Structure formats: C-alpha cells, structure tokens
C-alpha cells in the first residue's frame, strides 16, 4: 500500500511539473490527436469502400484501434519513465535510485510522465465508448464482468511489454534504446485484424511478443467474433505472464548494471 | 561549395557511425510497410480493385510511399532541434557558411544512406511479394526526377518545423504533429484518390502531396503526358517557394535566440 502511494505521489509530482509548461502540453495533446487521427483516416477511407476486412466491420476495427490507443496512453502515463532507462544506465544515474528504499523498477517508471498520455487516453477512451455504442452490445452481467476483466488486463499487458522492451537497455547499453522503439512499432501491427498477416507473424504477435492481447484477442472474445475468439479468455493469464516477465527481465538486467565509474 | 561538400560527407559518416539507431528507425518504417502490405493484400489480392488500384499497382504505390517516407526522416530534424535548444546553434552561427545550405548539405549526406537502405528493402520486398507494373522509360525518368525533388522539399518542411524550436522547447510534439499531417496530406497513409472530394482538394493545394502523391502517380503512369510534366513543375515550384519562405522564417527566428554564457 505504501509502495503504491509513493508511486502515485512520485507520478503526481512529475505531472504537476509537466503541466507547468502549458504550451508544450497542448502541442503534445494536439500531436497525439493528429497521430491517432491519421490512423482513423486510414480506417475510415478503407471502410468507405469495403464493408468488411476478413469479416471485421468498421466499428469492430475501431474498437481494436481504441484499445490500442488507450493502452498506449496508459503506458505513457504509468511507465513513460522506462523510455529514459537507457539514458539512466548510460550516465550511471541508476545509482541514485538503487540507494533509495523503494523498488527501482517503480522509480524508473515514475521518473517521467508522457505528455501524449492525456491526448491518447482521451482519444482512446472516446473511441472506445463511441465504438461500443455503435456495436449494439447486449450488456448482460456476464459481459460486463468480462469487460471488467479484459480491459485492465489488456492495459497491464501493454505497460509490461513497454517495461520488457526498455529493460533490454541493460544489455544494449546505448544512450537511447531504439530497439524498444522498434518493438513498440511492431506492436502497432496489431491495430488491424490479426488474420491479415502471415502465420509466422501471427504466432509472434500472439505468443513471443503478445501484443495481440492488447486489442485483437480481448475484442474478439468480447464480441464473440470468429472461431478463435476463445483465445481472448487467456488475456488475464497473459497479463500475469507479462508482469512476471517484465519483473524478471528488469531484475536480470539490474544485476548486469555496473554504474558509469565516476 | 567545398565546405558544404565536407558537411555532407561528415553527415554520411556520422550516419554510418550510428548504424544501430539508423537501422532501428528504418525498421520502424519497415514494420509500417509490412502492416500496409498485409492490409491492402487482404483487400485486393483476390483480383478486386479499389478506386482504380489493383494489387500490383497498390504494391508499387506502397513501395514508392515507403521510399519517400525513408528520405530525410531520421537525422536532420532532431539534431537541429537539440542544437537550437542547447544553444549550440551559436557555434553554427559564427561559422562562415550559410545555415540553411549547411543543414541541406547534411540532409543530402543522410539521404544517400537512406536511399541505399530503402532500395535494399524494396528489392527484398519485390523478390518476396512479386513484381509491380513498371513504367515506360520516359515515365521512369520523370519519376526519378520527382524523387530527387522530394529530398529538398521534405528537407524544407522538416527544416521549418525545426526552426519552430526557437519558439518552443518541445520538438517531439512538433515532429509528431508534422509526421501525422504530412502522412495524411502527402498520400503516404492512403492514396489521395481514396479521400472524399473536399479533403482531396485541400491536399492538392498544399505542398505535402508533392512528397508522396506526385512521385507515386508518376511511377504508376497515372498522370499522362503534359500533366506529368506539370506535376513535376509544381513540385519544383514548391521547392523554390519553400526555400525562400524558410529563409524568411530563419531571419525572424534567429532574432529570438538567447544563448546563456558558455
């Protein structure tokens, strides 16, 4: 409990600091809206001409897209600091964090707040609600329960995968971790129905780097879409696996850390 | 001319020295290409055509769009932005070379590497996914000319966005916004013919469409005879106009510069 409170206060401090620069804040909100807008333009223009892609209609695809954007926003809010991990290692600044009586991973996560987070959470949340309204979902208690399990699990998966991607900095040792950015971009592939990709790529995105469990599989099971919809029920299990993976990889990496020597 | 040649050479060597970030940022564009390939293949592979695009034509379009995305993408803007923010730009100011030409020389140095990398990727894709319709030699010459014009055009847009750092500290937001706007209006996200008429008209009067739409249409032979030449002329006019505009912007911007000691 104490741990969580410190984490929240740490984030809060960065949040206030970030909000001091109002022009920067609005620039990034606009940038986030435009970036996601470009993705929507693609979806809208395609569905203006075809009714379905591999059996997926426009609002179903928007729902997947919304989950991805919301998850991205969440990870920018809760774990943006991990993007600075490469720099912390490179300059030996992790020393300071190791001296404090508080989990190093959480300190790293809370060492920054992504300003895109506000734009992405708003856009993602708005799209999620809009898509659900258009989809005519029967809100039985079971389905509400399912949604309440799937949504947080999906968000946890995204945050954990961000930590995993950036923890590779312990091995790569550059000042900027471009590998993590590349992995993140690979995850972007799951904004579209997974079946459009080759079997190999599908397998990677569903198992080794389970980005497909952020949007595609949870939405599949929620809408009961297709033969493989049941895979979506594994989302909470994948979330647990991803958290364990993130903690393990970070710990392993930390053991390799040897400061900067000055 | 000599100092500029040296700057271009230095930029090229610099890019070679930092291969890993370069290759990673290239890989991000490659992942995006993979997603677009899968998406359009799902829509077009069974002999359909959308807005006059068959699958081989769309392949060609996506590859041209990939090449234009690669050009002037990685180095120029963030390097320039960080020099303005840190005040290191003061050193550039005392050098007896023109600032704009100097940055352009660097962009050319990078572009050489970017072109090489893009061509390698295109070759691999062509081998893996089969051919595209090749234009006649005359069209091909026009296409090559317009691809050459993309380098200064894209440079000028990036350069002017970089100059905005004289007003704001937050280059990330500007860069993201520029990428999104340019992605939509250049035709890199979706070919312009897919847009509703009003959006297409907006795109057609702006310089962005000359980045992707013009070379792609020339490659596909969509603008026959005289209109091909006029498309190229419009592109070159944009280069000349923006070169002048960027100079004006520089003169205004540089007056705002305050460098604290050193």
Automatic annotation (TrEMBL), chain A:
A Pfam entry, by short name: ABC2_membrane_6
Transmembrane segments: 25-47, 53-71, 117-135, 147-173, 194-217, 229-250
Domain of life assignment: Bacteria
Record's keyword terms, sorted: Membrane, Transmembrane, Transmembrane helix
PANTHER family per the UniProt record, alphabetical: INTEGRAL MEMBRANE TRANSPORT PROTEIN, SLR0610 PROTEIN-RELATED
Protein name according to UniProt: ABC-2 type transport system permease protein
Organism, scientific name: Micromonospora halophytica
Taxon lineage: Bacteria, Bacillati, Actinomycetota, Actinomycetes, Micromonosporales
From TrEMBL, chain B:
Pfam families: ABC2_membrane_6
Highest taxon in the source lineage: Bacteria
Membrane-crossing residue ranges in chain numbering: 20-40, 60-80, 110-134, 140-167, 179-199, 225-246
Keywords, sorted A to Z: Membrane, Transmembrane, Transmembrane helix
Protein's UniProt keywords contain Transmembrane: yes
InterPro entries per the UniProt record, alphabetical: ABC-2_transporter-like (IPR010390)
Protein name per Swiss-Prot or TrEMBL: ABC-2 type transport system permease protein
Species name: Micromonospora halophytica
